[in-house]
Amino acid sequence: MHCSKCGSLEDKVIDSRLSKDGRAIRRRRECVACAHRFTTYEEIERVDLRVSKRDGRSEPLSRQKLLGGMLKACEKRPVSVERLETTADEVMRELESEFQREIPSAVIGAKVMDKLHQLDEVAYVRYASVYRQFQDIGEFLEEIQSLGRRPKKSVLQPELFK
Fold first, then answer.
1. Structural domain spans, the chain
2. Distances (CA, A) of 36 to 2, 121, 134
C-alpha cells in the first residue's frame, strides 16, 4: 500500500476491525518511512451484475440509479433518506445473492415495488406508475383499489412461509 504522504510502500497495520455494516475490514496503517497514519478498507470484490432491459439492452446494475428511483417516488413523503438507503442496500444484497450475472429489469422493479409498498403506499403507486408505464387514470385507480385488497407486510414480522 502506497503512503498517501510520501509514497513509500512500507507500512505496518496498527489496528484492524470490521466496518459498521460488517462487509469490509477497516485497517489503520502507519507508514514506516514518515510515520503518517492512514486508513484502508478491504472488501470482497463483487462480480459486476448487469440489468437486462425490456428492449433487449443490457447495462451495469447501479445502486445509485436504484436509489434515485426510490428517492423520486418518495419525494415529499415521510420516508427518510437513511431508510431508503438501507432499503436500496437490502435490494442489492437480495439481487447479488439470487443472481450470478444478469438480472431482468422486471425482477428489480418488482423487488423495489414490494419494499416501497411496505414503506409508503403513495410512493409505491408513484413508482408503479412509472415502472408499469400507466397510460391513463383507469390504471391508477385499478392499482389504488388493489392496494386496499392486499395486506401490507410488516417489516417487523418476518414471513413464515414463502
1. 11-43, 50-149
2. 11, 51, 58
Give the span between the Cα atoms of 37 and 121, in whole angstroms: 48
The span from the first CA to the last CA of the chain, in angstroms, equals 47
Work out the burial of residue 12: count CB atoms within 10 Å of its CB; fewer than 13 is exposed, 13-18 middle, 19 or more buried: exposed
| 116 contacts 124 by C-beta, under 8 angstroms | yes
pLDDT digits 0-9 by tens, 90-138: 999 899 889 888 999 989 988 998 899 889 888 988 888 776 666 666 7
Q: Which amino acid is at 135?
A: Q
Q: How far is CA 57 from its chain centroid?
A: 22
What confidence tier does 66 reach under pLDDT thresholds 50, 70, 90?
very high
Cell of 142: 385499478
Count CB-CB contacts under 10 A for residue 73.
25
